[in-house]
TrEMBL record:
Primary site of residence: cytoplasm
Name of the protein described by the UniProt record: Prostaglandin E synthase 3
Stretches for region Disordered: 173-209
The species this protein was found in: Anser cygnoides (Swan goose)
Pfam families: CS
Xref: CDD domains: p23
Family affiliation: Belongs to the p23/wos2 family.
Domain of life according to the entry: Eukaryota
Composition skew (Acidic residues), residue ranges: 181-202
GO CC aspect terms: cytosol; nucleus
Amino acid sequence: GPGSWLGSGGGGSWLQAELGAGRSVSLGGAGSCQDESSRALTAGRGAPLGQPASAKWYDRRDYVFIEFCVEDSKDVNVNFEKSKLTFSCLGGSDNFKHLNEIDLFNNIDPNESKHKRTDRSILCCLRKGESGQAWPRLTKERAKLNWLSVDFNNWKDWEDDSDEDMSNFDRFSEMMNNMGGDDDVDLPEVDGAEDDSPDSDDEKMPDLE
């Protein structure tokens, strides 16, 4: 269904209640995807092979998240490869075709990577091949893509987190790996970046090049 998390093989649900409730990520926050989606549609009309969908991304310790901003998507196809992500779908009432191909900054684990469709966007969760290694950018090449931007609402400088914060997220990651048993597992709260305020202007920001 539209609320379930799917892997590359079309698997079943994956923490849908927790992530869907916005405990750890902000799915399609107000003004985030809506503006991007309409701008991409206007710019891409008439493209024969499909226009890239606008997307936002952010980095976490074990995962990289990419949110493709397409409303009312149909025929969603997400293909996870070791160093590449391919996304395609039809969007909106006129079935506008979107196609994104991303050569990734580093390797991922395709078998542990998932995606989830909502009426406003498609969120992809890429399991890093090497946990704990920061991604300064999403793409392999240092290039500016006009359809890709950093999701500052969810960006968190996790490398400088306190041990307490990291243990919380470690527990969350471990819970994701061990899902399938009890339905009443007590999942830890993971603070969203919107609750954080920068301590200084010197805080590390992602590479926008």
